[in-house]
Each structure stands twice: as structure tokens, then as C-alpha cells.
Amino acid sequence: MRIVTWNINSVRLRLDMVLRLVDDYGPDVLCLQETKVVDDAFPLKELAARGYVHAHVRGMKSYNGVAILSRLPLSATGGTLWCERQDCRHVQAELPGGIELHNFYIPAGGDIPDPDLNDKFRHKLRFLDELAAWGEALEDRQKPRILVGDLNIAPLENDVWSHRQLLNVISHTPIEVEKMDAMMRAGEWVDAVRHFLPATEKLYTWWSYRSADWGLSDRGRRLDHIWVTPPLVPHLLGYTVMREARGWGPKPSDHVPVMIDLAV
């Protein structure tokens, strides 16, 4: 089973890139974030023509939005409303073999890393606390689960271009990393990419639009993640971070797809 996650930053604006991804890499399951489209306007027809006839989408106009598209049968099992907001940041489905799949778009958090001064950052921290409580409450710890998405946190020193310079920048602040660690422990999640790539190695999935030459400056962050529960760890085959997608076309997403292969 091949699974890809990608913050596409508008699925309609970048549909050609989504189709290029599925043609080049052929994932069985594609999870998108920041689809920025209401469900009725989601381009399901175009993706069904590529074999993605199973879909579970939750979207809203212009903001947020998540989707699971699959060539494999899936059962749509909902999505939680976090922080008492109906802002389409989570969708959930069950894949063949009883694998529970969660697709998240965690709030970015704004620019000021102080919850007393920044409502967006306070929202992000609460979201992470709720995810930790949710993970703690998960039943059947032997159930295979996958969590993917734009989690908007680069937790490790080598998940950012400069640990020292970004310690006070939202996405890499100590409090965010602490809360992500708590979330991982609560759900017994394993970082599927770092399972293969040591923490000593640099790895990014996002490069700012503000950089005139993102590839040359390479000031990236690893904001996009795939986690699995322990029952799936022995089935992990490998990962791919599609760095080249940051250069697809004149208006690419600032995120790139992340992919894992599982022997299931």
C-alpha cells in the first residue's frame, strides 16, 4: 500500500499537479490538506478518472479543508471538530485490513509565539492538547492506525534549516515541540519517515514563498508527517519526500508530497 500526504494549497488551482503526482507515483491513497473548496465543488470526477473512485472530503470555501482519495475501498468514518470549531481540519476513514487513517491539518499559529498576544497561537496549542487527550483515549492499542498531514510543526533540530535561529519562530518553538511529543506519546505514534532517516540528517517538506530561490537558499522545514502505530512498523518498506514538486510549474504549493510504502 502506497500512501501520500500533501498540503496542496488549493486543489482546484493545482489540480494539474495532483494529477501529475498520481500519474508519476501511483499512490493507492492520497491525503490532501488545504483543499480550500466546498465539497460540492471538489474535483472528484477528474480524480475518479485516474482510479480514485473512493473519496472522503471535508471542505469549506477558501480556507482549510482535508480529503482522502483512494483506489482502494474505504469506509468514511467521519472527522472530529476540534476546539469547538467547524473548520474542516480532520477527516477519518478505514482502509482494507482494518487500518484506521486520520488526515489532519493543524493550525499554523500565526506569527507571534505568545498565546496571550496571539489568538491563532493559542488555538494551535489548544488543538495540540486536544490531540494528546484524543490519543490517550484511543482504544484497542493493537489496531493499525496511520496519521498523516500538515502538522505545522518541525520537531527535530534537523527538521529546520537553523535550529538556533528558529527557536522563537512558530512551528519550531519549544512549547510546540513539547506538545507534539506529548501527542505522539499519547497515541503511541511512530514517525514513519524518521524510522528510516536518522534524526542527524536534514529533511524538509516546506519552503517559504518569500524566498526568491528556495532551492539555493534551502531554508526549509519539515512540517508534513506520516505516523503509524506499532503494529504497522514492521510493515514499513520505505519513504519518499518529493522535493522536486516544490518546483512544479510557476505556482507550486509551498509544501511537497510525502509518501510511504507499506507491505500490507
From TrEMBL:
Residue ranges constituting the Endonuclease/exonuclease/phosphatase domain according to the UniProt record: 4-255
Any one Gene Ontology BP term: DNA repair
Keywords in alphabetical order: Hydrolase, Magnesium, Manganese, Metal-binding
Binding of Mg(2+), residues: N7, E34, D150, N152, D254, H255
Site (Transition state stabilizer) residue list: N152
Site feature location: Interaction with DNA substrate: H255
Note accompanying the cofactor annotation: Probably binds two magnesium or manganese ions per subunit.
InterPro entries, per database record: AP_endonuc_1, AP_endonuclease_F1_BS, Endo/exonu/phosph_ase_sf, Endo/exonuclease/phosphatase, ExoIII-like
Active site: Y105, D150 (proton donor/acceptor), H255 (proton acceptor)
Gene3D superfamilies assigned to the protein according to its UniProt record, in alphabetical order: Endonuclease/exonuclease/phosphatase
Superkingdom, taxonomy of origin: Bacteria
Cofactor annotation: Mg(2+); Mn(2+)
Pfam family membership, one: Exo_endo_phos
Site for Important for catalytic activity, residues: D224
GO MF annotations, alphabetized: DNA binding; double-stranded DNA 3'-5' DNA exonuclease activity; endonuclease activity; metal ion binding
PANTHER family linked to this entry: EXODEOXYRIBONUCLEASE III
Name of the featured protein: Exodeoxyribonuclease-3
